Write the structure tokens for this entry.
Amino acid sequence: MHPKQQRESFRSKQYTGTTSGMCDNYLQANMIILPKEYAFEFLLFCQRNPKSCPIIDVLEEGVTTPQIADADIRTDLPKYRIYRNGQLDKEVTDIKDKWRADFVTFLIGCSFTFEKALIENGIRLLHQEQERVVPMYKTNIPCEKAGRFEGNMVVSMRALEPEEIDKAVKITERFETSHGSPVHIGNPEEIGIKDIDNPDYGESISFDKKKRTPVFWACGVTPQNVGLNVKPPIMIAHAPGHMLITDQLEEK
Amino acid sequence: MHPKQQRESFRSKQYTGTTSGMCDNYLQANMIILPKEYAFEFLLFCQRNPKSCPIIDVLEEGVTTPQIADADIRTDLPKYRIYRNGQLDKEVTDIKDKWRADFVTFLIGCSFTFEKALIENGIRLLHQEQERVVPMYKTNIPCEKAGRFEGNMVVSMRALEPEEIDKAVKITERFETSHGSPVHIGNPEEIGIKDIDNPDYGESISFDKKKRTPVFWACGVTPQNVGLNVKPPIMIAHAPGHMLITDQLEEK
């Protein structure tokens, strides 16, 4: 389905599930909406932490149509999360009645893009084969602070065979708007992950620890996580896995 | 002289002239200070126009020491310009008594860095040989707008021999924090420059139009120019050519 049609199916609430695997070749994006009062510090945070927060578009205050998608961001994602004072308030399927003229919207690259490139290059991704959401972990790797925004990096993990790792590094480092090369390879404890089978977000995957090595990439959940630390009166984000599908073709 | 000592000579007002040619190998930066109310839109403008406005550091509100220089930006530049409502108010040698807790400071790459690389690669720069400030021109090339910040690009011009141009492109495209590759080669009129001998900023240089081709690079005067269009109640910048000398070595 073309992105425009797909987004219309969300707008009409025909479909409200995950966007994983939809609209092949089109860039999907994490979305975070904050009141303008927070916008400068958050944009600076993203600029200082490009691996976790690769900015692909910013909608100035009150703007509801991105440059990279002929969409209305208030209705064209399948599911949204509304956070108040750093706590999840509720999940909704549109945010029309929540919209404010001082809202600034940030669109941030996601790993769907580089996963496709890995598979096309013959690298098997176990979470896809096991039909699970990729496992994500809080780490002890500090992000670079910007104003009130500070916290540690969240990473996603893919368990690879040793001979695939070099290739995976080379492939993903090209995707600057999709988290780039891995931030750690091999030892979960070194980056503060105590139990690889107990991810903080997403789902656990089964893999043979003797045959595969865990490889960690910066994850787009980082800015959401750091945003919540600041406890803004309101922050709106896509529900995990329920991304904005853009009209922009993925970089090759 | 080491950057720290050099900056102390500005702080003590022993020297208040241009920083051109000072502290070889250390990065110099354009500086723009705006009230926080403008900071988000200006940062977004820079991010959308990286060739004109390559951000090398941002100092959050009230902060006076950059990450890339052990300096006090209120005293450690040789000369400052204070603009009010889009008009030059005065030139001063420090801004201690003008400082406000809501000031946000932006440091932006400058072309001193790539000029050095050009010379090291055997390319003669006429404005240096003629001891003039590089000629700069307003163009008809629109910048990408961000909020209230909009306007056309300002470019600097270096007249090169035809066989030097390819090399100059290759050298400068590596300097992403120093304006990168040229934005136009050859025809000044095509980018809205009516008289190459009458620059809008800097000084005119003499060159044989039959033997040399004008090559244009995005220029760090662009953000100052665009900033003034917005007519902020106050905006402070370095005086042209009187840059912040940082402690950071230039990229190679």
Remarks:
- The first strand of chain B starts at residue 26 and ends at 35.
- Chain B has a mean pLDDT of 93.
